[in-house]
Amino acid sequence: MNIITTKGLTKYYGDLKAVDNIDFEIAKGECFGFLGPNGAGKTTVMGIIYCFMPPSAGDVKVFGMDVNKNPGEIKARIGVMPQEDNLDPDFSVLENLIVYARYFDIPKKESSKTAWELLDFVELRQKADVNIKDLSGGMKRRLLLARALVNNPELLVLDEPTTGLDPHSRLSVWEKLRQLKSKGTTLILTTHYMEEAERLCDRVAIMDSGRIVAIDSPISLMKMHGGNLEDVYLKLTGRRLEA
Amino acid sequence: MRLKKAFRVWQRHLKVYTKLYKSSIALNFIEPILYLAALGLGLGGFVGEINGVPYIKFIAPGIIASSAMFAATYECTYGTYVRMIFQKTFDAILATPVNINDLIAGELMWGATKSLLYGTIILIVVSLFGLIDSSIIILAIPILFAAGLIFAEISLIFVAIVPGIDSFNYFYTLFMTPMFLFSGIFFPLDTLPPALTGIAFFTPLYHLVNICRAFSFGQPSTALPDILYLFTVVIILAPLPFRLMRKRVIK
Questions:
Q1: Tell me, what's the pLDDT at A241?
Q2: Helix, strand, or coil here: A74?
Q3: How many other C-beta atoms can be found within 10 angstroms of the C-beta atom of residue A228?
Q4: Which helix (H) or strand (E) holds B81?
Q5: Radius of gyration for the alpha carbons in chain B, expressed in angstroms and rounded
Q6: Which residues of B touch A87 (CB under 8 A)?
Q7: Cβ-defined contact of A99 to B99 (cutoff 8 Å)
Q8: Strands in B25-151 per DSSP E
Q9: Are the beta carbons of A210 and A18 closer than 8 angstroms?
């Protein structure tokens, strides 16, 4: 069963074509990666999937619903981990989760229980009352992941989940994502780390200048084009991924 | 716009406020009280009476009105801008079932709440100073909320079109300060050239000052046209912040 299908998805910002007529399908339980350099259109595709912005053209269905018609219903079932830290700086770690759960109309009693479970999951229970300012970059990332899970989403959208993290924190985030996948959560992520794509993703779409130049499993891509994923990328797009 | 979702946004702002108010609330008192003291006592010594009313009593209701006005505008210019651009709070909220209309409605409601809150605090303070004759002034409190909506709407319209946070200087210097000075708080407008009086008549603050003054002298019925004016403006302006902020936030 497909959780996402797009046909002819196109997005303009003014005259700039950020996403150019792309088609893809993502199955339930899959971990799907968008691979490409900055400006390839990955974040835009994400934003359209979680109904932050409408497509300029094309047909985009999430959970079988049109993103233009049922954004509220779709968003209620998605968790979003953004590229940038947009945690509430005036709230503690725990408060960030509780306040966020309110936007989903989750009652306090329930959200409080979920919040503590999530803090355990991302190993931040000790930091529950700490101010956001006093968290390290890795901790903020883990809290953003926990916040994306407050509504127990079926689909998790992760925009560069480990960019800027040290290797240890990166491994820790990967481990969490694997656990979520084994629980059956569908994951979509963008990355410009080859290793992240190879390790986590069942399939990747390689994007360049708003187009998808290849979609397949990392292994098939490497077999078909030779070398590692980095070489495949270079061969398909004529450029290197800057990490 | 769905009230329940807008209320979620309002709740967030209230929660932030309850954490931070201790460090800022005193400042919000000081300025209006300074105006009241410097002009009411200082200038009042020379002016004596206006329309048979001691000068300090003449300006006190206007200070309630201007406090309410500045509370909503600060909140919905700097406050909203910081949430939108620097903290990216809007991005976080819009990834949930809350949509842009709910979010803007929440901003407006919160701005109006600040008007209500700060206007009421000053109302209590000037009443304690014995500067208000009639307890009918209490009925002005809901009107402070309605007027706050107008100031929040105007502020959000401005937020939607400014290139950067420095542009708010224009808003305050060219719009807010003149409105504050020429809205009838400090002197009756009939002393001005008719052209200026005409401009003042279109500003929401002028009408809010009239209302506060009429209520504090126990003559609410004379303010009916002003009340009508304010409620009409709330409704006329309402579509603009929604439309313009959507354009700004949703690419």
A1: 65
A2: helix
A3: 15
A4: helix B80-81
A5: 18
A6: 92
A7: no
A8: 49-50, 53-54
A9: yes
The closest CB to that of B97, out of A72, A87, A88, belongs to A72
pLDDT band at A242 (very low <50, low <70, confident <90, very high): low
pLDDT at residue B28 greater than cutoff 80: no
Tokens 């109006």, residue located: B112
CB contact under 8 A, B91 and A105: no
Model confidence at B76, pLDDT cuts 50, 70, 90, reads very high
On whether any CB of chain B is under 8 Å from the CB of A82, the answer is yes
pLDDT for the residue A231: 82
Q: What DSSP letter does each residue of B162-195 carry, written as one string?
A: -SSGGGHHHIIIIIIHHHHHTSSSSS-GGGS-HH
Identity of residue A36: G
Q: Are strands A78-81 and A211-216 parallel, antiparallel or unpaired?
A: unpaired
User: Quick check: A239 pLDDT over 80?
Assistant: no
The pTM of the full predicted model, rounded to 2 decimals, is 0.94
Report CA-CA distances (Å) from A24 to A6, A58, A188, B145: 5, 12, 12, 50
Nearest to A103 among B15, B19, B97 (CB): B97
User: What are the φ and ψ backbone dihedral angles of A183, each rounded to 5 degrees?
Assistant: -80, -10
Question: What does the block give as tokens for A17?
Answer: 């074509």
A170-209 pLDDT per residue, tens: 999 999 999 999 999 999 999 988 889 999 999 999 999 9
